[in-house]
Specification:
This protein is an alpha/beta fold. About 30% of the residues lie in helices and about 15% in strands. Strands 3-4-2-1-5-6-7 form a 7-stranded mixed β-sheet, with helices on both faces. The termini are far apart.
Length: about 425
């Protein structure tokens, strides 16, 4: 099996002109030669373009950085992850090349930012009349798709296109789809992989796993990531600052034995957990002891990471309702991380909560009040409001007023009567 970069010599005719390369540490041939070095053998490489983490992987997650010079190659580096929020190429950078080559290993998750960078480069190449050559690589998670589509009003740099969270495409296929569906008109050429089974997971390719970023040390990390990345949006460690990010999970308020026992009782396919206490060296809870668990993949083909992530969030919330919470947006006016993932839509959620608080007279200090802290009658009305928000055709009530006060009983009977009239 050959990567696109392994076949670049057969397509050298596409590289006549000044060439720029968008790459990262994962940009290597099957023999582990850097794509930077390989391109310098076959074309006039003039410029490097650096996505998140940098060309050499020396930048932290989410760390902005400016243009620089690459030490090993001596080539100028144009940052695609600077302080400017657009992440687009500058006119100055575009003037320095005729052809852009893209060679970055993705991990098959919509929220991993490399495909967002790729979409922006497609737009820029179309705008400035540049050819874009994709050196394709297999999706390490195979071709299985899983998870919710992205709502268009929640698009961000960690969710740029309405594809599933685990999207099942190679980067070349994604680029072709975007160029066609959005009618960008980019001069796009994809050099595909050769001898590749698209159903295969990465270990079946017999290739060396080169970390796409420091928090993605092995294939199993990438497999779990579309689910356990959801913990980045809540007050629970996703394992950054530990020996096994996105597989080690927990928080100071969690009892490791309890969480692990309940998780394993769900019998999720292809994964099992062991209890763990750990102290992250960075990120959330750095320097604090956390209780949690360590996930172990037992059958990679059966793992459903997105379903795992959703059920894990629900379990932690059920076990620790007084401690568990969503993290606020990083910037004023921004969306919470889980909204960016498409897991929840806080704006629509808040609007619906406001609507039903008024419509069925739920008495609470605010829509952020924990349901468990409300009176029995108001808790029952919250349940009814959740059902009504899903616009059901049939609702079955089974003793809906048991154990609640007379006033709440009357209000619930009025809700039922109004529904019957509709």
């Amino acid at each position: 099996m050959e990567y696109g970069v392994d076949r670049i010599g057969q397509h050298a005719g596409l590289l006549n002109g000044r060439v720029a390369l968008a790459t990262s540490p994962s940009g290597r041939t099957s023999g582990l030669q850097s794509t930077i070095e390989r391109l310098r053998e076959v074309c006039s490489l003039q410029l490097l373009l650096a996505p998140e983490h940098g060309v050499r992987g020396d930048k932290g997650a989410g760390e902005n950085f400016e243009n620089a010079v690459d030490g090993p190659s001596g080539l100028p580096v144009a940052s695609l992850y600077g302080k400017e929020a657009s992440h687009h190429l500058s006119e100055e950078a575009c003037a320095a090349f005729d052809i852009l080559v893209y060679d970055i290993q993705d991990v098959g998750a919509r929220c991993y930012t490399f495909i967002s960078t790729l979409q922006i480069l497609l737009e820029d190449c179309a705008r400035y009349g540049k050819r874009l050559i994709m050196l394709d690589r297999p999706n390490p998670l195979g071709d299985m798709a899983e998870g919710m589509l992205l709502r268009l009003d929640t698009r961000s740099f960690v969710g740029c296109y309405d594809i599933p969270l685990r999207y099942g495409l190679t980067c070349g296929e994604f680029a072709l789809m975007v160029n066609h569906e959005r009618d960008l008109g980019c001069d796009l050429q994809v050099i595909p992989c050769l001898g590749w089974n698209r159903h295969a997971l990465f270990p079946e390719l017999n290739k060396v796993w080169v970390m796409p970023s420091l928090a993605m040390p092995r294939f199993e990390t990438a497999l779990l990531y579309p689910g356990t990345c959801m913990l980045e949006g809540v007050n629970c460690s996703e394992g950054r600052g530990t020996a096994d990010p996105f597989a080690i999970l927990g928080a100071p308020y969690i009892d490791a034995e309890t969480l692990t026992a309940r998780f394993n009782a769900m019998k999720l396919p292809g994964v099992i957990a062991t209890p763990l206490y750990f102290t992250p060296s960075a990120s959330k809870y750095a320097g604090e002891m956390c209780g949690g668990m360590h996930l172990h993949v037992t059958d990679a083909h059966r793992v459903q990471p997105v379903a795992l992530g959703m059920q894990l969030l629900a379990l932690i919330r059920e076990l620790y309702p007084k401690h568990f919470s969503l993290l606020p947006p990083l910037r004023e006016g921004d969306m919470p991380f889980l909204s960016k993932l498409g897991v929840i839509d806080r704006r629509a959620q808040r609007s619906a909560a406001d609507e039903y608080m008024k419509a069925i007279s739920i008495k609470a200090p605010s829509v952020t009040q924990l349901v468990g802290n409300l009176s029995g009658g108001n808790q029952q009305k919250v349940v009814v409001g959740n059902w009504l928000n899903n616009d059901p055709k049939i609702m079955i009530y089974d003793e809906p007023t048991r154990g609640i006060d007379v006033n709440a009983k009357q209000q619930i009977f009025e809700i039922m009567w109004n529904q019957a009239k509709q």
